[in-house]
Amino acid sequence: AQSVTQLGSHVSVSEGALVLLRCNYSSSVPPYLFWYVQYPNQGLQLLLKYTTGATLVKGINGFEAEFKKSETSFHLTKPSAHMSDAAEYFCAVKGRSNYQLIWGAGTKLIIKP
Amino acid sequence: NAGVTQTPKFRILKIGQSMTLQCTQDMNHNYMYWYRQDPGMGLKLIYYSVGAGITDKGEVPNGYNVSRSTTEDFPLRLELAAPSQTSVYFCASSPRQGDTEAFFGQGTRLTVV
């Protein structure tokens, strides 16, 4: 069965520092992978996705993620954190059925001034 | 653009009461979804619809019902509310399944007491 594990329910970084949010997945089929962001009291918004092709995917707000099949990982990074990046981030993988996304538990990103 | 609109934003229900969470989208998307989000957990799919008149159960459908009489609207009905249904509910839509972005409403925070 597909599953998604996000390491760390909370990650704290200083403003200007590297952001690294970890996501590992299991999938019995070639995965479609997604990162969504949820700002306080708002719905989720797509940051980026990997379906096929280039394994380094660039998203909005300076975020990018790299699909590593050998490590079954899809970690999210940003070179320099900004206060506005404070939010909760969710990794998801398409399930066996086309309608279904399997979601990680989320990582809350805290930015220290 | 309105996107996906959910009402109400907040609601407190007493055990045994019923209510309908409203969801409407103006993007002419065929696919619509209801999720619940519990603290420390990923989103869980309650019900989904692939078009007007067609609905199906997701991972956690017990205690809920849906209907899809139009492309735009996808209400979620709670019958006999229970404390276990205290959660944040998100409605989402997408133009097709699988590899595409889902667009989310702002959520409904429901408390059952």
Describe this structure in words.
The complex is a heterodimer of chains A (113) and B (113). Chain A has 113 residues and is mainly β. Chain A has no helices and eleven strands. In chain A, the strands form two sheets. In chain A, strands 2, 4, 5, 9, 10 and 11 form a six-stranded mixed beta sheet that branches. A five-stranded antiparallel beta sheet of chain A has the order 1-3-8-7-6, with no helix packed on it. In chain A, strand 4 and strand 5 (44-50) form a beta hairpin. The radius of gyration of chain A is 13 Å and the shape is globular. Chain A starts with a strand and ends with a strand. Chain B is mostly beta strands. In chain B, the strands form two sheets. In chain B, strands 2, 4, 5, 6, 9, 10 and 11 form a seven-stranded mixed beta sheet that branches. In chain B, strands 1-3-8-7 form a four-stranded antiparallel beta sheet, with no helix packed on it. Chains A and B meet through strand 5, strand 9 and strand 10 of A and strand 5 of B.
Radius of gyration of chain B (Å): 13 Å
Low-confidence stretches of chain A: none
The percent range for strand residues of chain A is over 45%
Specify the helix fraction band of chain B: under 10%
Given the helix and strand composition of chain B, which structural class is it? Answer: mainly beta
Give the CA-CA distance, first to last residue of chain A: 41 Å
- The general outline of chain A is globular
Number of helices of chain B: 0
Biggest sheet architecture of chain A: 6 strands, mixed
Provide a brief overview of the structure.
The complex is a heterodimer of chains A (113) and B (113). Chain A has 113 residues and is an all-beta fold. Chain A has strands at residues 3-7, 10-14, 19-26, 33-38, 44-50, 56-58, 64-68, 73-78, 87-94, 101-103, 107-112.
